[in-house]
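Kindly go through one protein, given below as sequence and tokens. The question is how this chain folds according to its tokens.

***
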Amino acid sequence: MNRTSRLCRTVAAVSAACALWSSAHAQAPVTYKVIGQPAATGLVQKNVEKPFFDDFAARTGLNIQADYKPVDQLGIKDTEQLRVMKAGLFDIVSLRVSQNSRDEPTLLGLDLVGAAPDYATARKVYDAYKGVLDTRLQKQFQVKLLGAWPFGPQILFCKKPVASLADLKGLKVRTYDQNLSKFMESVGATPVPLSFTEVHQSLSLGVVDCAITGPSSANSSGWPEVTTHQYGLGVQMAVNAYAISMKAWNKLKPEEQAKLQAAFTKLTDDIWAYSQELTIDAMDCNTGKPSCKLNKPYKLVDSPLKEADKKTLTDAVARISVPTWAEICDKANKSCSADWKATAGKVLGIQ
């Protein structure tokens, strides 16, 4: 074998080795660090969200694994999710919208008190507003919105007889954002901001008389053990969102971004449907109806909705919710309320 042949073989061997190394390196799995919904919130987290992230590579069609942990098991407050994302500590977050609205008031435009009392309206608001919110989150926190979904109508659970909003006068009511607190004040209640995990004990000890959450979340966390009445006036829809850091997003090729977005669109669509199913069932389960199937049966008193309370809630959107929120949001983001009125406000007929 002459010198040229030996050199060619050597070059070929090195090239082959480099190709194998490059292939192996390219196929090495990436792991995303993911903040999930609190495990205490119940069946959406347990039966839909967690399985999605546990099987992340298969669900997305990408060579990416997910290191998924619920926020209540991380030692991170659910009000700090955007901050830790901006700091680069996590790649994807299951974002608690109302809880993070103090850091970014624009978020609350998805879920103003009284604006979206049902699933169909909430979906219209999200579809209209998502572009505005995505742009803002990218600019302020370097995260991209991948989708949003609701836990469902947020209703009252009380340890005292409550059959109307008028019965809340003088009572201490757990709230979770400033918009809801302002509405509770307007009907004579005293708002008490508490995280979800603090509520059961606070009800038990009398720190609060009532608390607001979705029927299924209340059921999963045992609130009917420490309350007696359920009043089904849905003041908000408890919208939550998925967001990815722009750093992680920008590392993906366009076709990979499309796959990831498609997977999250399917996930959020699945949760919209499942949430509605859970809400109907939990309303029955909380009051011990035979139709209860998915949640745990309890024996709360379910007070019929008052038409006057529905009107009070509807009137509160233009009178309380939008002005209160706009004042705060426009200070942080000067086009905030104008952007909302041009999108979500337009589909709701609120200008």
Summary: The two ends are 85 Å apart (CA to CA). Confidence is low (pLDDT under 50) at residues 10-25. The chain is about 50% helix and 15% strand. The CA atoms of residues 147 and 272 lie 11 Å apart.
